[in-house]
Amino acid sequence: MVVKNIAVLFSGSGSNLQAILEKVHGKIFKGIKINVALLICNNPDAKGIERAKKFGLDTVVINHKDYASREEFDKAVVDEINKYSIDLTILAGFMRILTPIFTDNIKAINLHPSILPLFKGAHAITDSYHSDMQIGGVSVHWVSSELDAGEIIAQKTFARKTKTLQEWEKKIHKIEHKLLPKTIIKILTKDKNA
Ligand code: GRF
């Protein structure tokens, strides 16, 4: 059986990591088994580390605070990923700006909580909520050297029926938990080079 290995990078709560572990990890799609082979987190206190433990998975903590520059941190992350035979790296709430040390060397996708190219950056949920847009949404895109600007792979939108920021955020996460696993499966069962 063909096995494809993914690495998941996260920084905080890890609800999207959990969705990947529940819906993708160890499962077979079109005869291809997708395996979460590596977890990396830059925050030693991230809740996602505990979530992963419940699935029997350990997380490699690479704390950005231990590195003098973004490049040195990225090199440590790239070196870790390269220890394994990783077919695709997933940024699932990985809240670090990446340099070309990472983006030139790692084939990765990123989850972003807005309809890109609108509302790039770390405050996409609140920025989109406070805008006059009548729709919100979620994007998955290839990671490139420009922040939140790589080619868009998948998007899902919703209508602004929700009244509170909390409801808006909840709706985004609900969509994320479906869209990211679905996109990973699609890429790994379609792209022969993935
Ligand atoms: C998600 O909204 C993701 O789009 C953004 O960070 C959040 C991570 O949530 N980049 P979680 O850690 O997966 O719960």
UniProtKB/TrEMBL annotation:
Sites marked Raises pKa of active site His: 148
EC assignment: 2.1.2.2
UniProtKB keywords: Purine biosynthesis, Transferase
A GO MF term: phosphoribosylglycinamide formyltransferase activity
Domain of life: Bacteria
Pfam families assigned to the protein according to its UniProt record, in alphabetical order: Formyl_trans_N (PF00551)
Annotated pathway: Purine metabolism; IMP biosynthesis via de novo pathway; N(2)-formyl-N(1)-(5-phospho-D-ribosyl)glycinamide from N(1)-(5-phospho-D-ribosyl)glycinamide (10-formyl THF route): step 1/1
GO CC terms of this entry: cytosol
GO biological process: 'de novo' IMP biosynthetic process
Binding positions (N(1)-(5-phospho-beta-D-ribosyl)glycinamide): 14-16
Residues given in the record as (6R)-10-formyltetrahydrofolate binding sites: 70, 95-98, 110
Record InterPro entries: Formyl_transf_N, Formyl_transf_N_sf, GART
Catalytic activity from the UniProt record: N(1)-(5-phospho-beta-D-ribosyl)glycinamide + (6R)-10-formyltetrahydrofolate = N(2)-formyl-N(1)-(5-phospho-beta-D-ribosyl)glycinamide + (6S)-5,6,7,8-tetrahydrofolate + H(+)
Keyword Iron: no
Active site: residue positions: 112 (proton donor)
Matching PANTHER family: PHOSPHORIBOSYLGLYCINAMIDE FORMYLTRANSFERASE (PTHR43369:SF2)
Family from the record: Belongs to the GART family.
Function of the protein: Catalyzes the transfer of a formyl group from 10-formyltetrahydrofolate to 5-phospho-ribosyl-glycinamide (GAR), producing 5-phospho-ribosyl-N-formylglycinamide (FGAR) and tetrahydrofolate.
Protein name per UniProt: Phosphoribosylglycinamide formyltransferase
